[in-house]
Amino acid sequence: MKRLKTLIKYIIWIVALYIFASVLTYIGLNATYKNILTNGKIPEQVAVDIAQATKVNGRIYGEVTSTIHNDLNGKYIKVEIYNRNLELLGRKYLEIKDTEINEPKRFKVNFITEGVRSYKIEIVENTPEVQEDIERTKSLWDSVFTNEETKTLTIILLIFGLTYGI
Fold first, then answer.
1. Rounded CA gap, 57 and 156, in Å?
2. In terms of residue numbers, what domain contains 16?
3. Over the stretch 8-59, which tens digit does the pLDDT of each residue have?
4. In this predicted model, what pLDDT tens digit does every residue of 75-107 receive, in sequence order?
5. Is 48 helix (H, G, I), strand (E, B) or coil?
6. Are 15 and 76 within one domain?
7. How far apart are CA 89 and CA 65, in angstroms?
8. Helix axes 2-31, 148-164, angle to 10 degrees
9. Across-strand partners of 66?
10. Long-range contacts made by residues 28-35, C-beta under 8 angstroms, separation at least 24?
11. What residues contact 29, with CB distance under 8 A and at least 6 apart?
12. 41/78 same-domain check
């Protein structure tokens, strides 16, 4: 009986340590983000909730809403990020699809690059010129923009590895 109680105590300590490490990592990572400014006017159908960057990465989260007068299905959100000298650091196109009228649809952009100070968001039509620019942009800025899922999985694996010494 004494060994079982000791085993349960160890399990509780390990779970508590894991939760403590996870909370501290979350707080530590999110405390380094600073707000970045918009470079130009944001379209009225776009609402940006979070636009933040650290010294090496950043994120822009928001919503886009189609209206009766301006259906955005088939169009693209063009996101550009700039440094303090207004030099272009990256560009990404997000396709707007499956949006209902007056129903907001969430979008997110994550990037890994240094010195981001501002961003610009536009809604562009789907034209052959835009399609050519999208293809060029994919190869040119592919290493700048990331998926949040990949970053989250990496952080979880790092925490797990450090916690359990793997």
1. 18
2. 2-31
3. 999 999 999 999 988 888 887 777 889 999 988 998 899 999 999 988 889 9
4. 999 999 999 999 999 898 988 888 888 889 999
5. strand
6. no
7. 27
8. 140
9. 101
10. 29/155, 33/58, 33/59
11. 155
12. yes
